[in-house]
Design a protein that fits this description.
The structure is a homodimer of 354-residue chains. Chain A is an alpha/beta fold. The longest helix of chain A is centred in the N-terminal third of the chain and has 20 residues. The complex binds 3-isopropylmalic acid (2 copies). One 3-isopropylmalic acid sits at the interface of chains A and B. Chains A, B: Catalyzes the oxidation of 3-carboxy-2-hydroxy-4-methylpentanoate (3-isopropylmalate) to 3-carboxy-4-methyl-2-oxopentanoate. The product decarboxylates to 4-methyl-2 oxopentanoate.
């Protein structure tokens, strides 16, 4: 029986609503399987700025370091988006957390629950069976390089940077995952134009012989953006840089029917962080309609990856599957066939899964 | 009656095959409408490297400068893609051409011919009526900033850069185009993380009041990658930076059924260049199966934008429409309903349009 300490970091917007449901699911698992989970809570993002002036207070970081895993919500607020000159921003908290905790690998599994085949804008016959695992590098690239202004503020610049070491450690994680799946790895870059991409491709080519059982292909990011929609089933494991991963995984959310279904795990040197790939979604905040399934599935990833509790993780995924099979939907995954009384809000959907 | 000089630059791979067809269409238009088009041809890309050692020989650049418009094919060769250390690459020719000719605005119209509704992997009811005009900035960003290696080659870097001037001139073109369409402009950036994007957003916000009839929205690039598939009809004109435009327009090709249907115009300070958005596609080169419609539609854009010949341009588009209505398809846009004898190769498809 495991005894674990979990930090809940809801963050901004619908992060609050969905993480609350994710936590209930963890509670239920603890009770059912006889584990002891203790919890604490901490601030990040806009709510942290409001309370402390900082997007990632030291106290939050301390608590993260001391926890066995973090269940995370979302950060962001429209106020900052419309003010490009803001000096303190919620996203800085997220980026600092990733850097400070050494969360260099962001795993984003894209898998369509069969019941949601109709919810996607992509044709069911193109989607059926699609199952992709993204490895997005999370602590390098243009996100963390020097940036600033020159010429009296009239010119802006951002530096993208990667070292061999940074590429190699995420690449190895992706190769190893491919081994346990369909043994295909697609590395995505823009090596025909960008130097960091050339280094990226060099490193992949160099270590590939150590994984002779894995079939490797290289694709340009523009072609990949196209192929993900045209033929999603051709992909198994995809590994890519931070910025390309940001764009491609949001795009790939359409393969799973909705962003509201997708969970992610950020892992690396220490505590792992588990979060939905959707954002703070202030347009629907407080309305009780947000889809909690991404947070629930993040909890499932947490149980599996940070605690090694496979059966518990599968129990969560099966519960979600059952609820979908029973026809229950949140608004974002409902389609014309969904009866009005099967369209649930955040809490009611959580209830069903519990 | 116009008298114009057109430079044909087929480049690599299927560029040769499709551009030959595009030229035939220009010939036919000249004959039918009583114009005099004279032609010359020049090398770029891999074929230029083989012949001269340079991806863009001075002679080609000279000829481009002296022409009234350029009909362009594609550049690229797998040989270089798999050698990240190659010093001379076909793509350098393309990038140098864009820079030297000041082609800062790349227009990519994404419009679905109704007959191809079935050819896309996206559901017809999501696609029907989608009509997007992309303005991709083409001479700045991470494509043209300093790049290189440090730490004995163990670290690679690329600098992304934009000046106010560069953002403003492409933004104004996009605002003006929006005025002639549905009066909506979506500016795409990653202003929550990247400094060049913050400058980008600042400039758009600053000039927006000069176009009070145009409704402006700002979207992050990751959200846009998702929304393009989820709800393509929400977009009218989209303006974005070079790298984001590269990725998003390839993705958006799926809205039009196939990359083989999409034309682009690169315009700026001097001669305009017209080319398919597809690449050199060496996997199908020489097989005579490449779709020539993107090159034909590039010729239509050339007639319209560089020569102001609207009726001639429309005649080309109508011919393409008629051929599609008659059920003819190249392989890439055929679907299960297409009869085998209606699936044509490059030359036969060209014949039908002529
Ligand atoms: C909020 C933003 C900074 C973040 C990112 O770009 O990494 C988000 O889009 C994500 O994917 O987690
Ligand atoms: C070939 C490559 C350098 C080019 C680009 O990235 O601009 C191509 O993808 C394009 O979109 O024209």
């Amino acid at each position: 029986m495991a005894s674990k300490h979990i930090l809940i970091v809801p963050g901004d917007g619908i992060g609050q609503e969905v993480t609350a449901v994710g936590k209930l699911v963890l509670d239920k698992i603890a009770a059912k399987f006889g584990h002891t989970f203790t919890y604490d809570e901490a601030l990040i993002g806009h709510v942290a700025i409001e309370a402390t002036g900082l997007p990632l207070p030291d106290e939050t970081l301390e608590k993260m370091r001391k926890s066995d895993a973090v269940l995370f919500g979302a950060v962001g607020h429209p106020k900052y988006d419309n003010d490009p000159t803001a000096k303190v921003r919620p996203e800085q908290g997220l980026l600092k957390m990733r850097k400070e905790l050494g969360l260099y690998a962001n795993l984003r599994p894209i898998k369509l629950f069969d019941e949601l085949l109709g919810a996607s804008s992509i044709k069911p016959e193109i989607l059926k069976g699609a199952d992709i695992l993204f490895f997005r590098e999370l602590t390098g690239d243009i996100y963390f390089g020097e940036k600033g202004r020159k010429n009296d503020g009239d010119t802006a610049y951002d530096i993208a940077e990667y070292s061999r070491f940074e590429v190699e450690r995420i690449a190895r994680k992706a190769f190893e995952a491919a081994r346990t799946r369909r043994k295909k790895l697609c590395s995505v870059d823009k090596a025909n134009v960008i130097e960091t991409s050339r280094l990226w491709r060099e490193v992949i080519q160099k270590i590939a012989p150590e994984y002779p059982d894995v079939e490797v292909e290289h694709q340009f990011v523009d072609a990949t953006a196209m192929l993900l929609i045209k033929d999603p089933r051709r992909f198994d494991v995809v590994v890519t840089a931070n910025l390309f991963g940001d764009i491609l995984t949001d795009e790939a959310s359409q393969i799973a029917g909705s962003m509201g279904m997708l969970a992610s795990a950020s892992i690396g040197d220490g505590t792992g962080v588990y979060e939905p790939i959707h954002g703070s979604a202030h347009d629907i905040t407080g309305k009780g309609v947000a889809n909690p399934l991404a947070s629930i599935l993040s909890a499932a990833l947490l149980l599996d990856i940070s605690f090694g509790l496979k059966a518990e993780s599968e129990a969560v995924i099966n519960a979600v599957d059952k609820v979908l099979k029973a026809g229950f939907r949140t608004r974002d995954i409902a389609d014309q066939q969904t009866a009005a009384d099967k369209i649930l809000g955040t809490a009611a959907m959580g209830e069903q899964v519990l």
